[in-house]
Design brief:
Layout: H1 2-18, H2 21-28, H3 34-41, H4 45-51, H5 54-64, H6 79-87, E1 96-99, E2 105-108, E3 116-117, E4 125-132, E5 138-147, E6 150-159, E7 165-171, E8 176-180, E9 186-192, E10 198-204, E11 220-225, E12 228-232, E13 239-244, E14 248-253, E15 258-264, E16 269-270, E17 277-278, E18 283-289, E19 296-302, H7 314-317, H8 323-336, H9 352-355, E20 358-361, E21 366-372, E22 383-385, E23 391-396, E24 399-404, E25 411-415, E26 423-426, E27 432-438, E28 447-454, E29 459-467, H10 470-476, H11 480-483, E30 496-501, E31 504-509, E32 516-520, E33 523-526
Parallel strand pairs: 15-20
Antiparallel strand pairs: 1-2, 1-33, 2-3, 4-5, 5-6, 6-7, 8-9, 9-10, 10-11, 12-13, 13-14, 14-15, 16-18, 17-18, 18-19, 19-21, 22-23, 23-24, 24-25, 26-27, 27-28, 28-29, 30-31, 31-32
């Protein structure tokens, strides 16, 4: 037994020795406290030298005290000494981003303390769509500002540890639905493009020159269409899976500049207005329809590689077009002055997407999660997957339903007994489904309240009634299946959530105590960590 343990220790040390300093530094930065870092540094001289790097200790301090003025003078500017003196035993601090009533951006602690303004008080303008990076070190903000008498649109990136503006990217149109790439070095956003179209635009910070004296961050268009929903590959590659123009799925690699249409055997086209979800196990969750049917199907499938794409058949080139989309393209062509008469007897214009290669998903790779009724009159069939990928929540005949999709045989684990909410979101750990309910008349919903379903026990908690929150209701909730993939109202530990109501920002815990008011505001979202 002792020999086996000794062999394991030797093997572990050999593995560490094979890692270059750059990779080993990334591993060390995942440690959550200085005590572990100090113990690790005692194992060998190489690790001791690495752990003496001030950047490690600076990161640990900032995780615990974002945006506070560090008292480095007391420790002669030594971050390790500062940690030992002031930060030892202090847990990392999560933050809340707030859009104020006058459309400015603030950060604060969960109790409302240490509220600091990020947006400039020198350049006038309105700021919106705050979106945290996955590591919570950055906050992206869409800005509309008057600069030298001209209206300008920028995507701003703030360092949430220092509170400083890192860079600002000039955009053609105001950005919304900001979505960080899994490695936090890139982000995408939607914006209005040609008349009647949306553009998915990529900002790549990794390859950009961010020198403030000569900035050169140029956004590039990844995909155009309307509607346009998409999801990043969670594995961190440069791929997005997009639902475009109501009737197309596309797999796009924006680094290799490759794309392909994705066709599911046995299904005609995507369901109405449903954002796809790309799970960590490489499965895609979407809503589909079949030819001539009003019924919809919630399905998941393994996404094949772009290397499997083939040339489209004549039948695939001539697939039926969405009439509204064709009208939109015609109007856009007129607006640009490059309209061309139809080139074939069917009156169908040449479409570049018809020339794109095709990826076929075989019937054997498709799992039907549920057969859904005809389209919901208001929003179509929205669904929201839990961050862990185990559950999916959706409406079935007006009632909330939760299905466990962790295996190849999906299992319904909860169905509400009465007509339920139109809006819902998951906690980070997937243990709580938060739903928003109308208390007023259906045609005049002036009052609302939140409910929390504790999934394991299926216990429900009902929270206080409050007035309308227009910013949340108008901007985010109609597109919840897309927005909840890039931001959250929940605290990182899933023990509380933040929400706007009656021109205030409130934090509600799940111990049934009253909510805590943390200041004025029209919208707020919590950091991921």
């Amino acid at each position: 037994r002792d020999l086996i343990m000794e062999a394991d220790e030797i093997e572990s040390s050999l593995l560490l020795s094979l890692l270059p300093d750059e990779l080993l530094s990334i591993v060390l930065l995942q440690l959550d406290n200085g005590e572990d870092l100090a113990r690790f540094s005692c194992t060998c001289r190489r690790l001791l030298n690495l752990c003496e790097d001030p950047s490690f200790w600076r990161t640990l301090c900032q995780r615990r005290s974002r945006l506070q003025i560090f008292r480095l003078s007391a420790t002669q500017g030594n971050w390790k000494k500062y940690y030992a003196k002031f930060m030892k035993g202090v847990k990392p601090v999560s933050k809340i981003a707030i859009v104020s009533l006058d459309s400015q951006i603030y950060l604060c602690n969960s109790d409302g303390s240490n509220r600091i303004r990020l947006s400039s008080n020198i350049v006038t303008g309105s700021y919106s769509q705050p979106t945290w990076s996955h590591n919570s070190n950055f906050l992206a903000v869409s800005a509309i500002r008057a600069i030298k008498g001209k209206k300008m649109f920028h995507m701003l990136r703030y360092d949430t540890q220092s509170g400083e503006l890192v860079d600002e990217v000039l955009c053609r149109r105001p950005g919304f639905y900001t979505y960080w790439h899994p490695d936090d070095t890139r982000l995408t956003m939607l914006s209005n493009w040609l008349p009647g179209t949306l553009a998915c635009t990529l900002i790549d910070y990794a390859t950009a020159n961010t020198n403030p004296d000569a900035p050169s961050i140029d956004p590039s268009v990844v995909q155009v269409g309307r509607p346009l929903y998409y999801a990043f590959n969670p594995a961190g590659s440069a791929q997005v899976f997009a639902h475009v123009n109501e009737d197309e799925f596309k797999l796009v690699d924006f680094e290799a500049n490759r794309r392909a249409n994705v066709l599911l055997d046995g299904y005609a086209q995507p369901g109405y207005f449903a954002a796809p979800v790309w799970r960590k196990d490489n499965k895609i969750v979407v809503v589909m329809s079949k030819t001539g049917e009003t019924q919809q199907y919630l399905v998941m499938f393994d996404i094949p590689s772009l290397d499997t794409a083939v040339e489209p058949t004549p039948a695939e080139r001539a697939k039926p077009k969405n009439a509204a989309f064709l009208l939109m393209k015609t109007l856009a062509a007129f607006a640009q002055g490059n309209f061309k008469p139809p080139m074939n007897p069917d009156g169908d214009e040449d479409d570049e997407s018809e020339k794109e290669p095709v990826i076929h998903v075989g019937a054997g790779a498709i799992t039907v999660i549920d057969e859904l009724p005809a389209l919901h009159a208001r929003y179509g069939h929205d669904f929201v997957c839990s961050p862990c990928g185990r559950f999916v929540a959706y409406k079935y005949e007006g009632r909330m339903r939760i299905t466990d999709i962790s295996s190849t045989t999906p299992k319904v684990i909860y169905t509400a007994t009465e007509t339920d909410a139109d809006h819902w979101l998951w906690s980070p750990d997937g243990s709580i489904l938060l739903t928003l309910h109308y208390d007023g008349a259906a045609d005049e919903p002036s009052k609302l309240h939140w409910e929390a379903l504790l999934v394991q026990s299926q216990k429900k908690l009902r929270f206080r009634t409050f007035g309308q929150c227009e910013y949340l209701m108008d901007t985010y909730l109609p597109f919840q299946s897309q927005y909840w993939q890039s931001l959250t109202l929940f605290s990182p530990d899933s023990k509380a959530f933040v929400y706007p109501a009656d021109d205030k920002i409130w934090v509600q815990t799940f111990d049934e105590s009253p909510p805590i008011e943390i200041g004025d505001g029209q919208f707020a979202c919590w950091s991921w960590s």
